[in-house]
Design brief:
It is a single chain. The protein has 301 residues and is α+β, with helices and mostly antiparallel strands. The protein has helices spanning 20-32, 114-130, 148-158, 172-181, 197-210, 228-236, 272-283, and strands at 2-11, 44-52, 56-72, 79-95, 100-104, 138-141, 145-146, 161-170, 213-217, 237-247, 250-255, 257-258, 261-265, 288-293. Strands 1, 2, 3, 4, 5, 6 and 13 form a seven-stranded antiparallel β-sheet that branches. A five-stranded antiparallel β-sheet has the order 9-8-10-11-14. Strands 7-12 form a two-stranded antiparallel sheet. Helix 5 (197-210) packs across helix 6 (228-236). The radius of gyration is 26 Å and the shape is elongated.
Length: 301
């Protein structure tokens, strides 16, 4: 079943990393925590929690709600209504080291909205953690983010060769911001022709003022890594979307987008613990996916 998980940040947590014993203790506290809510038909709580690799908590959180069951009397053929209690189940995954959580969202007229579910989840999680001596301030739903630094690092450090770049959101102010971070030193656009640097920086600023998006693709057998135009455009892009490059003998592509939500496949008839490794791989926002293994670029062009 395709499941929508929303990403939340755990703000002002008083831990960096936890010991294996502490993680096990938290799992136990969550599993032993009583349901909350004055009205039995609308109580909420954890039904299952486990851990993975000493830094991941995962499980199921539920919200009860009253419902009406319909049946038919076999003799009178009349409809029979019976009041009962149903529940909405929500998968959750918490990365303790990253202070990050994913919580399932559902659309159901009988259930509260996702904001209220997240608030109730937060209240009970605080109680469970406090029993082990840990606290946090709140869970805040994350927004789509761009990890620009990751693309920059790949371009200048990780990649042996760069074949494609997709860039968006150009801003000339960014060039000056990056320059100030380097203590007033401009980006190296040309190397070793230092006399070209000032003019190239001016070109980068002018490009950032006029360009909206840019997609660059190297010619067969060539690389963008030391191309001054590619460097100038990358310097002015607040939103570098994608990079295709070679690292050793592997051709890789990386997207810099960290999404606020993700759709993943969770099988209801298979234990969640067996699915966690595959789920975590899908949730990794900066995953690097190897397209192919080859020693040349024949299939790229």
């Amino acid at each position: 079943m395709l499941t929508t998980l929303y990403r939340y940040k755990i703000f002002r947590a008083n831990w960096e990393k936890m010991s294996q014993d502490k993680v096990k203790q938290i799992v136990s506290e969550i599993n032993n925590l009583k349901f909350d809510g004055e009205i039995v038909e609308r109580q909420y709580g954890f039904t299952y929690c486990d851990s993975y690799n000493d830094n991941i908590l995962f499980g199921i959180f539920i919200q009860k709600f009253p419902t009406t069951l319909k049946d038919y009397d076999p003799e009178t053929k009349k409809e029979i209504k019976k009041e009962d209690i149903d529940s909405g189940a929500y998968y959750f995954i918490i990365n303790l080291n990253k202070h990050e959580m994913f919580l399932q969202a559902k659309r159901d007229a009988n259930l509260p909205g996702k904001d209220l579910i997240a608030l109730k989840f937060q209240d009970l999680l605080k109680i469970a953690l406090s029993k082990s001596g840990f606290t946090f301030h709140e869970l805040v739903e994350a927004h789509d983010e761009i990890n620009r630094n990751e693309i920059i690092k790949i371009f200048y450090e990780t990649a042996d060769e760069v074949y494609e770049l997709d860039l968006q959101d150009f801003d000339s102010k960014l060039i000056e911001e990056e320059k100030l971070k380097r203590g007033g030193q401009r980006q190296t656009y040309f190397n070793p022709k230092e006399e070209y640097q000032e003019a190239m920086e001016e070109g980068a600023i002018k490009s950032a003022k006029t360009v909206r998006t840019a997609s660059l693709k190297a010619k067969k057998g060539e690389s963008l890594k030391k191309n001054p135009i590619a460097r100038a455009l990358l310097e002015g892009s607040r939103n570098p979307k994608r990079i295709l490059y070679r690292q050793n003998d592997s051709i890789r592509t990386t997207s810099a987008v960290i999404n606020r939500k993700v759709e993943i496949l969770i099988e209801d008839d298979k234990p969640l613990s067996e699915q966690i490794p595959a789920i975590l791989e899908k949730l990794e926002p900066m995953r690097i996916r190897s397209i192919t293994k080859q020693k040349n670029q024949e299939e790229l062009f």
